[in-house]
Amino acid sequence: MSRLAFLVLAHADAAHLQALVAQLVPAGDVYLHIDAKADLSSFAALKEMPGVRFATHRHAIDWAGFSMVEATLGLMRDALAASTPYAYLVLLSGSCFPLRPLEELNRHLARTPGRQVIRYLDMRESATHYMRHINRRWFKRPMYRGRVRPLVLLDKAVRRVGNMLRLPNAWPEGVVPYFGSQWWALTADCCRYVLDFVGRHPEFVEANRLSFSPDEHFFHTIVGNSPFAAAADGLQPFEGVGTYRMANLHVIDPSLQRWFIEDDWPTLSASDKYFVRKVGSATGAGLVARIKQERLSATHSPEEH
User: According to the lineage, what is the superkingdom (predicted)?
Assistant: First the structure.
């Protein structure tokens, strides 16, 4: 089977991240980005794990900001620069965990070579919600990153006023905007196309730099307007607001906020998804142990489920 590259965005909970990586490395190499605001020493043990490569460049991640896209693009470049020929690059968060053996995921992807595992909807079908993400400017990146509290508060106030002004954002003409879940699996060839597109279209990058949550439309828009769209899971009908509706490989709670615990196992075990998000060591250790015992142990047979 072809080897996978797992691109993992993390910022905390080194204990859970280590448990996640331990499950990933038998199936692929892990390219790990740790938020530049986090203490890297907390993740030192991961540097000793085979198959783990830390991001060449670290970015300070801002909620709903372009920094998430920058970190993802960096991991993509790192993976494609490696000597290993990866079939797919799979984007995950540090709070994900496999629900099924990743050999099954590899076989699943191998059955349809060239398929792009990314679903999206046309943002123009949601003029009052999703289109607001791109047709006005959002100031999510702090101008001041120090710890002097008055300056922190001033920075927040200035950006809040900027957001309230609802300044128009210049979206590139002729580019259909698509929205979907941040977490996807794209072929290496598709990822090369993405990086090439980014290099050739600075106006697209700038339009996304001041958009809201670009990680949920940046890659989807590039793929959806590309020759790779024909092989993507692709365009879905608009059935209402909710990122969870566009989930590709993950079980995601509709609230996007709730963390899964062991009590959720009956629901999770009935899912055909390959990952669950969100799980953490503080509340989800029992769930992780249950998944490992029921699904990921060496004695488990996939045919049993």
Answer: Bacteria
